[in-house]
Predict the 3D structure of the following.
Amino acid sequence: MRLIQSLNHAGHAVKIYRDAEFNEYRVRVYPNGQLYAAADYFTADKADAIDSAPAMLRQLVEVQA
């Protein structure tokens, strides 16, 4: 997988990857820097992945606060 974008705030991260094998984008959540694979979001639409990542990061920061 190739990293497309990474959003970070207060030790938390949300990263967007392009998975060429499955022809999709994967948005992955890293609370406190550790991957939480159960929260992975899959989409074939790059714009959807890019639009979803900030909302996922906001939710992660609110939950961890």
